[in-house]
Write a structure and sequence with these properties.
Layout: H1 4-7, H2 9-15, E1 21-23, H3 32-41, E2 44-48, H4 54-67, E3 73-77, H5 83-92, E4 97-101, H6 107-115, E5 119-123, H7 127-135, E6 140-144, E7 150-151, H8 157-165, E8 173-176, H9 185-191, E9 195-198, H10 200-203, H11 212-220, E10 226-228, E11 241-244, H12 247-264, H13 270-279, H14 284-291, H15 314-339
Parallel strand pairs: 1-2, 1-9, 2-3, 3-4, 4-5, 5-6, 6-8, 8-9
Antiparallel strand pairs: 7-11, 10-11
Helix pairs in contact: 3-4, 4-5, 12-13
The structure holds flavin mononucleotide (FMN).
Amino acid sequence: MLAIDTLWEKGKNFLGTRYPIIVGAMTWISTANFVARIANEGAFACLAAGNLDPAFLRKEILKIQSQTTNPFGLNLITIAPNYRRHLQLAVELQVPYIIFAGSYPRGPEIKLAKESGARVLSFASTETLARRLIDMGIDALILEGSEAGGHVGHVSLIVLLQQVLFQVQDVPIFVAGGIASGRLIPYFLLMGAAGVQMGTYFVMTEECEAHPRFKEAFIRARARDAVATPQIGSELRVVAVRALRNKGLDKFAELQIELIQKRRRREISHEEAQYQVENFWVGALRRAVQEGDVDYGSLMAGQSVGLVNQVRPLKAALAHLVKEAEEEWQRLRKLCKNYL
Ligand SMILES: Cc1cc2nc3c(=O)[nH]c(=O)nc-3n(C[C@H](O)[C@H](O)[C@H](O)COP(=O)(O)O)c2cc1C
């Protein structure tokens, strides 16, 4: 029994896990094998649906269910073309937790998910949105700061804590973005969080099936190398993704300049230019993760990449986090006693 068990009980009970630590879904990285291993180690893992072929996703879900009896989540991208079929699959296969990502779920989608017996989570970036989702029946929220890897909002976690976590106490809230040390965890719990969600930290485990070159790039990178995709001017819209700087990112900036110039010379329509911008990164994360194309692929990573510099077994990575959290909590308790 750990002293911190009492502090993080709410999150543990909600997730049904030993630790209220969510390993966030990572497209192409959060495969069935990885998810099952994490679940068996006592953390909470999410299978990333991305835009997978539904038949393949079905096999992945069944694989997890055959490898663990512990709970896990399915992360659905609500703007993916296959989203509706993914949601149906989650309902049919009775996935225990459904996490809506990408954009926000609509009322009937939340209802459908809940009627299957699943607990439902969603990302919320403002208090208004959090309250709307709670009114629609969402069971828990994820508050993710712009320090995180992957698709990001514009506001850092330190501000979101004040804007949302301090205002909303109705459902468990898991905080994410920039976390790579267990020492931080007791502080978030004291502020009212139910637990944390982390991504980048867990890429650096032996069980993560990402290409060795992907992990090597993480080892070399400093925090400031994980940048949000640049948008040149305001004529073309760019969806922000935090990833490591590489040749692909430079080429993307050049493409935007070229397209803006073509637009001004009326050589291309706005729709065509916007399409080329959106099409640029299609398949780029898969190329980086599976083929090790670190030059032109998308090396999605959070700023916490500057805090991780070794690949180790999942068990050790998790044990390290828990040990740090427990030691910090013990230290804090002693410290507080001196002031009481
Ligand atoms: C390579 C990569 C892929 C990701 N893919 C997804 C995804 O498919 N769905 C999602 O909701 N979040 C995705 N994320 C975000 C993570 O689930 C998690 O919230 C984030 O990594 C937390 O920030 P951190 O990296 O600083 O720990 C991704 C993150 C990374 C690094």
